[in-house]
Write a structure and sequence with these properties.
alpha+beta, Alpha-Beta Plaits, 4-stranded antiparallel β-sheet
Amino acid sequence: MPQSLSTVYIHLVFSTKERRPILRDKAIRESLHAYLGASSKQLGCPPLKVGGVEDHVHLLCRFARTITQAEWVKEIKRVSYLWLKEQSREYLDFQWQGGYADFSVSQSNLPEVIRYIEEQKQHHKKISFQDELRALLRKHEIEWDERYVWD
């Protein structure tokens, strides 16, 4: 086949360093989500939904075939880290966690994942980020070691 075609959807989740609730300000958080989406789009990974709460973010995107997952995550974390530090002195000590989790999403499950990301605020009235991530890891049958998941 002379043409390369791909439709891969990825749900990416990562938190602030030590899950610090530094993204409390709703306006900054929404601007950060928009910036993350725009940054992902520039990397060829157009977002379907970006959201999150005070201590972590979720991105659902159509993944490019020209970049690795590691390159994509590294770059959007890097540029958003720099952008946030420019917004206020309050964010001078801001850091993202070192790692991340991402999950493949079938096209038929896109509406469910979009709704899940939209409902983060309500969701986290009942469950912590750690418990949410554990549930996602179990759902996707990913083995993990608690000693190395949190930073």
